[in-house]
Design a protein that fits this description.
Length: 395
Amino acid sequence: MADSDLRDYDIHAQDVRKDAECVWARMRAEPALVHGEKYGGFYFAAKFKDMRETLLKHGIFASGSGITLPEAFNRSRHIPAEIDPPLHKGYRAIMQRTLTADKINSMQPAVRDIVLELLDRFKQAQRVDFFSAFARPLPVYVMLHFLGLAREDGAMIDNLVVELHTEVATGRITGGAKKLTEYAESVVDRREASPAQLNDDFVSTIVKGEIDGRPLTRDEKVNMVRQVLIGAFDTTSLTIAAGVWWLAQHPQDAQRLRDNPALMNTASEEIVRFASASTYLRRTVTQDFELGGTALRPGDKVLMCFGAANRDPSVFADPDKLVLDRSPNPHLGFGLGLHRCVGSHLAKLQLQVAFTELLNRYAQFQLDPQGQIEFSSGLGQGIIALPLIFGPARC
């Protein structure tokens, strides 16, 4: 790939995820940060060490002006993802109250029920698009359960999230962002109108939330609910699809997980690294700084390449392989520092239950040679069509 190709590389182009590993390797091989010419200009941070520095030095690499590329122009900032310190700490503390490991682990029976329900839906089928049948609806249904929302809202919310991503990528207003905000408003308004329903769940915690001794404003509550709706679907579904894609081609690894369930914890972390479903996020430079041999100035935009950093061979041996027992595994798939994924415990629970039950249900599955694997583009990249052939389901 020529330097000009790197400069013109468009993360929103169709099929851009195919062979992205080669592009990331080329970016990492450059002595300085590659400068992208699109979307007003920005720098790619592709090496692990540069990514780590960008994530940890939040005072220099700010999130407050947005984390998308191009910049979202028709919505308010997500909370807390697009909030800088010191306000960030208060917002995050509110969200974390219902997302602790103990509280999330208590959801395991409910998550397992959803997993088994989805598996049962195609129990009699041999050929299945696993993404649409399982990987995508699972996090949608789990998040609706977590938020105490109606299952029937799932398809509508899912479509609005897809529309929102399209708006960010193209700059065309489809109405998705506005409608998703309106839905989040309705969630907050309904709960506030029924004080007797306030308890210790997520929405109630947001409704009752205070920051710096004052109640949250309505806009703050809405933005926090919307943040969870947007952040919960894509990354988990793409991560599940990536892991199943690997296991379908490496049945020996699938059998290792069946034989040794204790591997599931390290395996789930490795699947997150391998998938890097949150593939790109932006930061904005606040002061003069040198990163990766490049002099940056205030206002410069840096696009963090999680996919590239998580496959950096200077940190990860055999980075393009999914190694079930990889240790240590300092991957950046959940982020790092102040903005580390607040929902990581819920994501890991879904991964572990999903893979456990899938492997218990099926002794074998493989890629369908008659099907076509498809990939998404944009900030979150991965498999969005995964045709599989399943062996007989166990009772």
